[in-house]
Amino acid sequence: MTITDARITAAVFTAPAAGARQVLDGVPLKPVTLFGRAISVLMFIHYPEWALKSYDEVGVALLVRGPGGRPGLHIVELPVTGAFTREAGQDFWALPKWLMDADLSFGGTGTSVTVRDGGAEVLHASVGNGRLRLPFGTRLKVPSWSFLGHGAQAGRLLRGTLPMNLSGIRVGRGAYAVRLGEHPMTAKMRALGMLEKPLLTVTAARMAGALGEFRPVSR
């Protein structure tokens, strides 16, 4: 299954290790820490029409280690605007997708998003584009861990990769503003340092790559 022409904006944060461990309570993974700080990521992605149709998603993720100390990105919240991708994401990849209403906009100076659940605002955030435009793209496969307590993959630890073939990249410490409501997702965002200024922001005009199979791993 290949992503052909998505757009992505991401902000990278540091967070207290204790907050990261709290978010991972009940999950067989541990946060990667450096000088007592964990690394978290907030992502906004738009997918035009592809195998899972057209939709937006907002991801909250954490850099972790799994069995054998292997590092990877663990997505802890992943609301989406499409019911089909919600079901596929949960059943095939154990991704924590739930259905949201959202207004996601990529502009010349930055990206903004409003997320709603049942009509109530969950969050509003804006991320400015970084000043540095990279003259090259990336061809990466980011190792990923996933774990859900419900659904077809309930209780199974899975490992796979997330494609990050990016072009039209801008990096820096773009302006960041966020307003959080009261919601399980925003409780995790607070614990993962997402009220603070990001360490790094990344925007890519195009994201592509093959989304491979996630396989069970013994704990």
UniProtKB/TrEMBL annotation:
InterPro entries: Acetoacetate_decarboxylase, ADC_dom_sf. It comes from the Bacteria. Gene3D superfamilies: Acetoacetate decarboxylase-like. GO terms for molecular function: lyase activity. This is Acetoacetate decarboxylase.
